[in-house]
């Protein structure tokens, strides 16, 4: 099992690594679903930890349908993130018809050579998730998809997650399950779906509050629970 934890500052990153996180998703504006953090933050987090740092590339929270100015902005962000030494980016773009925006994706991938690429939960707003996954599988640079199996919390979408896992089976693309998972539900969810990577944010923060600091006790309990499955 692989545990990805949302970090919003350097302190989060250090606490996450110290308490068993395997990878970070670095963002700002957690209450808006995550936006691109400042490049100074990216540089400091990369220096502060040894685990992989994947950085959100999302210029605003209006929608996942982007115009030319948005794509140009994201291209600049990818260049800066790569230069800062991050291990990957977290990105997603849709068309007005709720399909993968392949034109935007190809432009971003052209600048992300050598980086891991996660297609984020824009995926869950697609009109057809299986079709969207098959589209992404045509792009080997895309390593994983962060999804809850639709717009509902992941524990309520087990059949959808299971279907996505079956489609991705045998490919290089991994399903990273997130949104709505808790310490109490994650073991059964993993057993029911077969996912090997999970993503946690508010559930491992103090009081379950997205704006609160990470809770080391919760995080350590979660990481032990997941990593014990590897034994």
From TrEMBL:
InterPro entries for this protein: CutC-like, CutC-like_dom_sf
Keywords: Cytoplasm
Mitochondrion recorded as keyword: no
Annotated localization: Cytoplasm
UniProt signal peptide: none
HAMAP family with a match to the protein in the record: CutC (MF_00795)
Protein family membership: Belongs to the CutC family.
Name by which UniProt lists this protein: PF03932 family protein CutC
Organism for this UniProt entry: Paenibacillus rhizolycopersici
Gene encoding the protein: cutC
């Amino acid at each position: 099992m692989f545990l990805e934890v949302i970090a919003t500052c350097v302190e989060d990153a250090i606490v996450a690594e110290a308490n068993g996180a395997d990878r970070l998703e670095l963002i700002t504006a957690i209450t808006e679903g995550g936006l691109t953090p400042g490049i100074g933050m990216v540089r400091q987090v990369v220096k502060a930890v040894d685990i992989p740092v994947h950085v959100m590339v999302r210029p605003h929270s209006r929608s996942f349908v982007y115009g030319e100015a948005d794509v140009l902005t994201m291209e600049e962000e990818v260049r800066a993130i790569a230069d800062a030494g991050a291990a990957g980016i977290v990105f997603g773009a849709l068309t007005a018809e709720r399909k993968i925006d392949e034109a935007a994706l190809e432009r971003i991938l052209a600048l992300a050579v050598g980086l891991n690429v996660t297609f984020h939960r824009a995926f869950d707003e697609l009109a057809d998730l299986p079709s969207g996954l098959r589209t992404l599988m045509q792009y080997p640079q895309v390593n994983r998809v962060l999804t809850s199996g639709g717009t509902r919390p992941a524990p309520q979408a087990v059949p959808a997650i299971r279907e996505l896992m079956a489609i991705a089976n045998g490919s290089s693309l991994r399903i990273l399950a997130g949104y709505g998972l808790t310490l109490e539900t994650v073991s059964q969810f993993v057993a029911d779906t077969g996912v090997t990577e999970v993503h946690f944010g508010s559930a491992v923060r103090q009081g379950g509050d997205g704006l609160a600091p990470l809770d080391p006790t919760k995080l350590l309990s979660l990481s032990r629970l997941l990593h014990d499955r590897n034994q």
